Amino acid sequence: MDWELTGKIIWGLCVVAWGIIRFRPNIKARKTKIATTKRPPIERFSMFASQLGLGIVPAIWVFTGFPKAFDHAIGPASIAIGTALFLFSLYLFRKTHKALGKMWSHSLDLRENHKLVTKGIYQKVRHPMYSAFWLWAVSPPFLLANWVAGLAGIVGFGTLYFLRVGQEEAMMEAEFGEEYRQYKARTKRIIPGIY
User: Fold this and answer.
1) Residue 33: DSSP 8-state
2) Angle 108-111-117 from CA coordinates, rounded to 5°
3) What's the pLDDT band for 12 if we cut at 50, 70, 90?
4) Which residue has the higher pLDDT, 105 or 178?
5) Is 42 helix (H, G, I), strand (E, B) or coil?
6) Are 110 and 32 in contact (CB under 8 A)?
7) In the prediction, which pLDDT does 37 show?
């Protein structure tokens, strides 16, 4: 069996599934106006770094084979681990969008009449969307037989995460005050009970 091709196909199908999951919530969220937004240049840079690492760099390798010098062999165990990670990522991504509803935004935005979401998946962690993206970021090293394509998502999404999460929490605390501080005290950021 051609494990390299299998990994590419699974990666591609999962990326398409990710887009399908995000499509409807994106349309619904746009119907609710943004009341507060914080999009400084560092936010735009971090969004670009994440897109580059999670999608663009892997897609370049998948469709062109560049950079071939960093190719390596993968097998069925690697494909199984990568597939499981990406599928769990998709599951969390769907649960997160369902819980957020029209409060969802792809950037540092608060919608009109924004409500603090603490139900559903948000009872477990404060940032399950980031948990889903981290799972996406760690799946390509198992699915893609190229070190650059495989590790790009960890670097790209890691850049967004570490530049944004503190700003996002400060924004939520400024908006929701004690309610957010209490929520923060009883939940972890992305891994239940750990971090």
Assistant:
1) P
2) 85
3) very high
4) 178
5) helix
6) no
7) 86
Spatial neighbors of 142 by CB under 8 A, at least 6 apart, are 7, 74, 78, 79, 81, 82, 83, 85, 150
| 76-100 and 128-138 helices, crossing angle to 10° | 160
108 falls in which pLDDT band (50, 70, 90)? confident
17-32 pLDDT tens trace: 999 999 988 888 888 8
pTM strictly above 0.90? yes
Name 155's bridge partners: none
Walk me through the domains of the chain, giving residue ranges and CATH numbers.
3-186 (1.20.120.1630)
Report how far residue 16's alpha carbon sits from residue 10's, in angstroms, rounded to the nearest whole number. Answer: 10
Spatial distance between the Cα atoms of 22 and 68, rounded to a whole number of angstroms? 32
Beta strand 34-37 with 109-111 is: antiparallel
Q: What radius of gyration, in Å, describes the C-alpha atoms of the chain?
A: 18
Cα→Cα distances 160→7, 23, 57, 100, 145, Å: 25, 21, 16, 20, 24
Comparing C-alpha atoms, which of 65, 193, 85, 194 is closest to residue 143?
85
